[in-house]
């Protein structure tokens, strides 16, 4: 497990003002991609992939993510955004996004159902976000 000093070091701002890429744990072990399935929870909105990550890999990531320096969001939303109160960390990391997309079986699974997405499927957003919700923190309603 990285120390808090290590976590600070991996996220130290670079000269350009962006956050340095964390040293993400390896995405291992994984289940065979043939064992994965999409589960529609809310049509056109929410899809689950149960056991995309094994329980041991989840524990590894929970431990790692707890070392990242999360920042509490401001209490005032930007115009047109939902009120959110949480702690977060974000970094632009196209390498990790590609590892998640191709290395976990996610690409294969999603591409098998490409017609349900209503557009061209091209991968994951490289802006990686980690959110933590503590007691009394929330993500407000998007639409009224």
Short précis:
With 144 residues, this protein is α+β, with helices and mostly antiparallel strands. Helices cover 24% and strands 17% of the residues.
Core attributes:
3-stranded antiparallel β-sheet; 144 residues; globular; single chain; disordered N terminus
Fold and architecture overview:
By secondary structure, this protein is α+β, with helices and mostly antiparallel strands. 24% of the residues lie in helices and 17% in strands. It has four helices and seven strands, in the order αββαβββααββ. The chain has helices at residues 4-10, 55-65, 94-103, 106-112, and strands spanning 39-42, 46-48, 71-72, 84-85, 87-92, 127-132, 138-139. A three-stranded antiparallel beta sheet has the order 3-5-6. A two-stranded antiparallel ribbon has the order 1-2. The radius of gyration is 17 Å and the shape is globular. The N and C termini lie far apart (43 Å). The model is unreliable at 1-16 (pLDDT under 50).
């Amino acid at each position: 497990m990285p120390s808090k000093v290590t976590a600070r070091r991996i996220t130290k701002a670079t000269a350009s003002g962006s956050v340095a890429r964390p040293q993400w744990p390896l995405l291992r072990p994984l289940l065979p991609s043939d064992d994965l399935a999409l589960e529609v929870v809310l049509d056109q909105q929410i899809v689950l992939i149960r056991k995309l990550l094994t329980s041991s890999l989840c524990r590894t990531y929970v431990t790692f993510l707890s070392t990242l320096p999360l920042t509490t969001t401001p209490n005032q939303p930007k115009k047109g955004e939902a009120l959110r109160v949480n702690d977060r960390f974000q970094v632009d990391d196209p390498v990790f996004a590609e590892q998640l997309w191709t290395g976990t079986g996610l690409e294969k699974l999603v591409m098998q159902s490409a017609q349900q997405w209503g557009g061209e499927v091209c991968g994951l957003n490289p802006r990686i976000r980690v959110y933590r919700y503590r007691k009394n923190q929330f993500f407000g309603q998007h639409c009224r």
